[in-house]
Amino acid sequence: MASTESSMMKVLGNGPFAGRALELMITEEEIATRLKAIGAELSQRYGDSGPIFIGILNGSYIVMADLTRELDIPFEVDFIKLSSYGSGTSTTGTVRLLKDISADITGRDVIVVEDIIDTGLTINFLRRRLEEAGPTSVSFVTLLLKEDVAKLDFPIDYVGFSIPNEFVVGYGLDVDQQMRGLKAIYSLKEQA
Ligand code: IMP
């Protein structure tokens, strides 16, 4: 659990979340080890077929960067922006398409990259939408899965970590657009 940035508990002294606390959940090293393993599995599975990775913005940009650098196969990258959360820490229950992919995925192997699956609303919506374009295959990678909460219409192929139903930040994950740059993953506590 040794890490330069990580400590077990950080109390936020100023800014919009002053008085709340961050409790370390997953270290930088644990994330790196897991992504290396998933990258190796993907390289073996896809070989020279040239899959396209589709990241869900904004949260997946760091997972995408780190995961794709573990691959030793040819691949492409694209992004889609969806929103199921307004602000704060609870879902709005609807998914909005804010930015579509640029690539034509018909006849392609597609790998969706998500930072976290909470209710499953976003990923269920995206799967239906991608399938309409006639890809050869669609598989799913998520760094985090809240398995007690998620209601999924299909299995997730690669799960980094199953986590309890807590609101987490860091490694691309935000609260009101803040804290994405934390290198580890922390549970955001109401107060210290
Ligand atoms: P879902 O549609 O409920 O599965 O939620 C997926 C999206 O909600 C993720 O891509 C995140 O943007 C956001 N989200 C869900 N849980 C968390 C969390 O614990 N921290 C930060 N964002 C979250």
Features:
192 residues; alpha/beta; six-stranded mixed β-sheet; four-stranded antiparallel β-sheet; 10 strands; binds inosinic acid
Commentary on this structure:
This protein is of the alpha/beta class and 192 residues long. It contains 3 helices and 10 strands, in the order ββαβαβββαββββ. Strands 5-4-3-6-7-8 form a 6-stranded mixed β-sheet. Strand 6, helix 3 and strand 7 form a beta-alpha-beta unit. Helix 1 packs across helix 2. The longest helix is centred in the N-terminal third of the chain and has 19 residues. The mean pLDDT is 91. The site of inosinic acid has 19 residues, from strand 4, strand 6, helix 3 and strand 9.
In short, what is this structure?
The chain has 192 residues and is an alpha/beta fold. Helix content is 20%, strand content 33%.
Low-pLDDT ranges: none
**Distinct bound molecules:** inosinic acid
How far is it from the N-terminal to the C-terminal residue, by CA?
21 Å
Counting DSSP E segments of at least 2 residues, the number of strands comes to 10
The biggest beta sheet is recorded as: 6 strands, mixed
Average pLDDT taken over every residue: 91
Content of β-strand: 25-35%
Question: Order of strands in the sheet with the most strands?
Answer: 5-4-3-6-7-8
Q: What overall geometry do the principal axes of the alpha carbons give?
A: globular
Query: What is the string of helix and strand elements?
Result: EEHEHEEEHEEEE
Helix content: 10-25%
Question: Mind telling me the C-alpha Rg?
Answer: 17 Å
Number of helices: 3
